[in-house]
Amino acid sequence: MLSRRLAALDVGTNNVQFIIADVAADGSVTPVFESAEITRLGEGSLEDHTLKKDPMARTVLAVSEAANKATELGAEWAGAVATSAARDAKNGRAFMIMAQAVGAPLSIITGDEEADLAFLSVTASPPAGAAKQIVMLDIGGGSTELAIGSAQTPEHRVSLNIGAVRLTEKHVQRHPLSKEMLAELRGDARLAFSRAPVAAGEFSLVGVAGTITTLASVQQKLASHDPQKVHGSALDLADLEQLTDDLAKMTLDARKALPGMEAKRADVIVAGAAIALEAMIHLGADQLFVSNRGVHWGLLHKKIAGS
Hints:
CATH superfamily of the largest domain: Exopolyphosphatase. Domain 2
Helix content: 40-55%
Shape: globular
CATH class of the largest domain: Alpha Beta
CATH topology of the largest domain: Nucleotidyltransferase, domain 5
Number of domains: 2
Largest sheet: 6 strands, mixed
Strand content: 15-25%
Order of helices and strands: EEEHEHHEHEEEHHEHHEHHHEH
Strand order of the largest sheet: 8-7-6-9-11-10
CATH architecture of the largest domain: 2-Layer Sandwich
């Protein structure tokens, strides 16, 4: 017997992730509707910290569609949050009010709160075979979160000011990337992770959200990008290094045509791969578990735990 139906929304720098799920009396979660739409809210805003008109319009439309779906399917809100692009922007509050006006109870969260939610999304349902200690990696468009712990609340967390969109806008002038561009991407990521914690003892590294699932889809040569099919799989360090180099050498059209590639992510995927690669090197991890969870799933589990 179902106890409730919940909706959760994560408005990131690059995409809008939404889920409606049925929650049973025992706390088990069954998705009934999921969507992930790339609206690139942070496009052109990462330097002057001002959200632009067109990206805001695209994103508010996606938020409105999610709110309408929640109403249509009779879901109550577990939560709706905006992350890096909105929290860094001078007009982030204006965007939040626009989103609230179309039916989503949107709030802007800190980097630490973002890390906590993404970590909870993993530890509430860890990958099969994972160690007790989890290191969660969440590569977003504007920021990257790292959290470490053995329970559902991390013992260490950090939100780094690097992301797939942010580093692309900073370093990538053309496709294919030059060796110098790729070196700059990796150098920025390496510098950021030098300030991040590392895990003591045995751990499993778990990457969440679109960059990681897309890289796994491409590595597996899936017919089309499908986060569900890669959830629970793993990427090896050597394979990821080769994949990063291969992607950097491709034209944008060639990258878009790859099996498993999400076309709207093709321009920023090299930066995302560089961040993932440098994270693994920093942590000393040979393997990265792949998860299609993330902040929106964390909102569900937080609501369930607080009920």
